[in-house]
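Researcher: Let's try something more involved. This one mixes different molecule types, so please make sure each is placed in the same coordinate frame as the others.
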Amino acid sequence: MNQIFESILDPYYMQVLTLLGIYIIAALGLNLITGATGMFSFGHAAYFAVGAYGAAILTVNFGFPFYIALVAGGLMASLAAIIIGFPALRLTGDYLGIVTLGFGEIIRVVFLNMKITGGAIGLSGIAKETNLSIVIVLVMVTVYIMYALDNSRFGRALVAIREDDIAAESMGINVMTYKMKAFALGCFFAGIAGGLYSHLILYINPSDFGFAKSFEFLCFVVLGGLGSIPGVILGTTVLTLAPEFLRAVADYRMMIYGALMVFMMIIRPKGLLGDVNLHRIFFKKKYQKQANRSTAAGG
Amino acid sequence: MKKKSILLAIVTILALTLVTVGCGGGGGEDTTSTDSNDEAAIKIGFLGATTGGHAYYGINTLAGMKMAADELNEAGGVIGKQIEIVEADHGSKLSEGATVAQKLIQRDKVNAIVGDPTTGITKIAAPIAEDNQVVQISAGAVGDYVVNTEDGKLREFVYRNTLLNAVAVPPVVKYLKDELGWNKVAVVTSMNNDYSVGLTKLFKEALNDAGVEIVADESIQDGDQNFSAQVTSIKPNNPDGIVFTGYYTEGGLFMKEVRKQGLDIDMVGGDGLLAETLWEMGGEAVNGSMVYCGFAADPTMAEGKTKAFIENYSTANDGALPDMFVAQGYDAVMMLADAMKAAESDDPVVFKEEIKKFEDWQGVSGTITIRDDHEPLKSPVYLLEVAEGDNGQQFKVKAVIPVK
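Model: All components are placed in one shared frame. Result:
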């Protein structure tokens, strides 16, 4: 399948699109944590890093097949999330944000000082395994899982926790367990994205997974619309492609990028697709019919 | 409901405008590049940062490259074509480094890439350049696995023109022994600093080969403030000097402690000590401390090509002296130009063979020989010394040591 893409797209576009797909997977993971459950996480890049390093070390040092390493990287990120989640998730709101930020930095500094990760020199010699078709398939799988979760008992419980955790608890939802599950699952996707990233860029270095990256992920989600899956995809697309397309204006690139973010947040404070139910818009007739029927029945 | 659809429409329009504007911009760029691509231009891509953490290196490398391109173009270009520098900023981000390398090769169709000044992004771009058969010269990478892969295979298209520590250390040690009469030294290593650990290994080998005795082997950590224990244990051994492989902050503080305990010996180290922070931390204690590096501009000692280069640069930049990155960026473009001239071709597959043949190639930062393992052998090594100057303390060239 990748050959088809290679014949129509040049490698520069392939690179940009592959990176975009990877970011979408990670951003959808964060959306489950921040958008659906309402837990602020400023340390998403750290789980991304766990996946990136985990998968890369497994393929480079232990000769694991790529797909197994990828899943293992995701599981390692989940594990890290569970370990950190126990103390951290007892907090809410801004406090949680600060604690996740702290843990994110800790994970980065651990990678900076470990021998197996290559320390500050970084890890190189990773084989190129990630390609556009794998990423597209995984993005589709992720989107499907996210939709399935959204409409499941689990997803509704998360929304209940986001809206009012006390009310949710009184309805018999074990808030802590659900939060933990959402956190671990969201970080699993970050880990998968990380594994794809390291096998695309082929060289990783702790400086790449700092606070700036976490913040970038958060921007994707908030700008697209917290809790909206199409919103997150649109937000990630706009913010990933904008700097590339803005290369034409060279020196003013990052300034325009920043202005764009401010402008979008003023126009759409809830994110590009926040509060927009695409399903309802695309299937307007069905909803109208239902509405008519109910009025008819009612009347 | 209606309101929502209107909002959605606005959002869609906004998003579309953004994308079309972007594409339009991109398209515009393409047309300009095809305009200048009328067979008459040789494109050299600049891979580096002009924003972000490594912007300093990138901006200076680019300045050197542009200077070289201007000089070449004034003299009629290379093999009858003008040189065009194509620049793209990656903002010091690794992920963008890969994208920029792809962009330079695929969109701009460059004949060669100069960059990145850092080892990390050079390593990211190297496989891309290799796969696409575009020559890449890094004007700054000193780390391992740049010109060869991790499994020891030589890269055919990737080169660098930097002074490697492995090349620089033996002549520096020889100078210390022969000229300064150091026969007993203390070696100080910062254990949590990869650069320091690697450099210590090289120094120890060179010291052993030169027959200099290591009388004390002390370790410190980056971030340490108090070095009294290490200095106390060095003192009774009475070394002639200290080899310090760490960074400037600790270097300055370490020398302060050395003077405090009444030892009158000097320190020598790699370019990890090369920063004003050294005397901001060490004050007068670092006077006499020595640092080696690949290039230092000293108008009084320079001659020939280098002298002209320093003069031209300072005239164009209000008297500022070029630093190592400017000189290496300049040399990288000149190396490419000379290789193209020798091969009479701007096809990377053809002129890369000429780069391999470089022997005692004269650049402004020194002479370069590309060895069989594709690593550069660069001469000379500049040994700088901290001394009191007109504007307080500064680095002065103490010796220019040739490498054989």
